Amino acid sequence: MEVLKSVSEQTASEYEMSEIKLEVSHIRKQFDREEVLKDISFQVKKGEFLAILGLSGCGKTTLLRILIGLEHPDSGSIKKDGKEISKLAPNERGMGIIFQNYALFPNMTVLDNVAYALKLKKETKASAKEIALHTLEQIGMSEHLNKKPRQLSGGQQQRVAIARTLAMNPDIVLLDEPISALDVTNREIMKQELKAIQEKFHSTMIFITHEQEEAFYLADRIMVMSEGRMEQLDTPENIFKNPANAFVRDFVVAHLEQKYESLLKCTGRMKNEFN
Ligand SMILES: Nc1ncnc2c1ncn2[C@@H]1O[C@H](COP(=O)(O)OP(=O)(O)OP(=O)(O)O)[C@@H](O)[C@H]1O
Ligand SMILES: [Mg+2]
Hints:
The chain is an alpha/beta fold. It has two domains: 20-94 and 172-275, P-loop containing nucleotide triphosphate hydrolases (Rossmann fold, 3-Layer(aba) Sandwich); 97-169, no CATH class. The chain has helices at 2-18, 60-68, 110-120, 128-138, 154-167, 184-201, 212-218, 236-241, 246-274; strands spanning 20-31, 34-45, 49-54, 75-80, 83-84, 95-98, 172-176, 204-209, 221-226, 229-234. The chain has a six-stranded mixed sheet, with helices on both faces. Strand 9 and strand 10 (229-234) form a beta hairpin. The protein starts with a helix and ends with a helix. Mean pLDDT is 89; it is low at 1-10. Residues 60-61, 176 line the site of magnesium ion (MG).
């Protein structure tokens, strides 16, 4: 029994070690002598959904841009699968990014938007159309292949942007507030779809948001940021139960409790009115 236990423990620890996809260490960044990222370190496991949660201006987008290589850190390292990638160009890092405004090509059809980057890549040049068709089908966009972006709803445009990124088969998908531009109903739908997409594609995802509920609904773990600092990184449950400091308590726990209380009040009032 003892022997069995120790073997399974060893396997578990080896599994943990081998599953680290991204390792970010001591990232610092200044703009105009103002430090916008202050010694950020964290790890992301393969297949994990990490949310970065923080107020406007706290450095979320800057961190994402540094991860994909659109911005250079002043210091620190970024390792993917154990290899340093911080000196590589964005297209050599095996990451895909989805921006808030989708950044689709307005004059191209849905199919061409997704196939475009595949056609430029040597490995996928010949099969670009098939890969694009397959990805669009998986994402529920087969009916809209020949439409231009302006003929699509916000949620549909977002799906195309997601398909375009996933078709390139990135190791890590970065999403910068991907659903905040949508109206409330579409945001709810996309939130559920994002979760389904992640389960279907088994992608490692890093998702930026300033909405506590969104982070709690989607993420395996949440990094709470404030003014360029990482305040806490843990599961939603642990953050809620054990906020690391007063900022996390106010920004996350108190906020969710207030939301919950107002929901209870609202449903209580509705019950009284309808009974
Ligand atoms: N290229 C730049 N030059 C100078 N300052 C910049 C630049 N990019 C970002 N900043 C500053 O760095 C800080 C962090 O910006 P960042 O865009 O990372 O914030 P954010 O958390 O993504 O905010 P939001 O939620 O509003 O998108 C801000 O004070 C911003 O003004
Ligand atoms: Mg931002």
